[in-house]
# Entry
Amino acid sequence: MATTADQLREEVRRRYAESARAVTEGGGGCGCGSDSCCGNGDGDAARFGEALYDAEQRGALPEAAALASLGCGNPTAVAELNDGETVLDLGSGGGIDVILSAKRVGPTGVAYGLDMTDEMLALAQQNAREANATNVHFLKGVIEQVPLPANSVDVVISNCVINLSTDKAAVLSEMARVLKPGGRIGISDVVAEDHLPPEERAERGSYVGCIAGALSKSEYEAGLKAAGFEQISVEFTHQVADGMHGAIVKAFKTSTRERRGLPVVASAGKSGCC
Ligand SMILES: C[S@@+](CC[C@H](N)C(=O)[O-])C[C@H]1O[C@@H](n2cnc3c(N)ncnc32)[C@H](O)[C@@H]1O
# Structure
C-alpha cells in the first residue's frame, strides 16, 4: 500500500522524537540506528551535523545543542544577520541555529524556532536555557503552515528540513508569506543534481534520512520563483550521496508584486514546484 503524506510526516516525527530522546539521554542525535535520522552512520560525520560548524560556534553552545545538530550545513554562516532583526528557523530541532542566530541579532532582535516534534522542542528549550539565550521563542507547528503573521520576519533560515516536507510548495509559499518585503532566506538542504529523477534519489537513501525527499536544483529554483522570490541561488557545497549534495539556498522575497498590488502569497500546491 502506498504511503500517504500523513503517514510519511508521522514517520519523520517519530524518527526525530527518537533522535531527541537519544541526545537527552547523553547520546548523539544520529546514534539511534542506521537511516533513523539525517545520514546513515559514522561515515556521515563530516557531511551532517555539528562538524559543519566552526570551533568558535561550537564552543558557544551547550554540549547537548551541538550533539543534537542534525543539519547538512550551517545556515547561520550563509544568512547575514543584523542587530534587531527577527529570524525564523524552520524545523529547529535541538535549537542550534536558533541559539546562534539569537546571539547574532542581539537583545533587540528575536529568533523563533518552529518544529512539530515535542521532544525536539523540549530539548531546544533546555539548550536555550543553558545557553542563557533569552530572545528565543520555540513554536510548535508545521513548516507548511507557519504560526506567525504575514510580513513579520526579516530572515528565514532552515537546516536540512525542507527535504523532509511532504508539501514543499506550501513551505516555500509560507516563507514568502511571513517574510517582510525584501526579506531573505539562507537555507541549507540536501539537493539533487537535475538529471536524477525521484526514483533514483530514493535509491540513494531514505526519506527520513533526508535523501529521498530532496528537490533537484532546478525544482528548488522554480519553486522559489513561483512562491515570489528573486535573486535565487542554489549552490552545492559537499556531496552527500552520488549526485546529491548539501547545498546553500539563498533568495529575496520580491517586493515588485506588492508594488503592482498583486498578492505575494501563492496558495499551497499551485506553485508548480513539487
Ligand atoms: C534533520 S532535523 C534538523 C534539525 C535542525 N534544523 C538541525 O540542523 O539540527 C529535522 C527537524 O525538522 C523537524 N521537522 C521535520 N518535518 C517538519 C515539518 N513538516 N514541520 C515542522 N517540523 C518538521 C523534525 O522534527 C526535526 O526536528
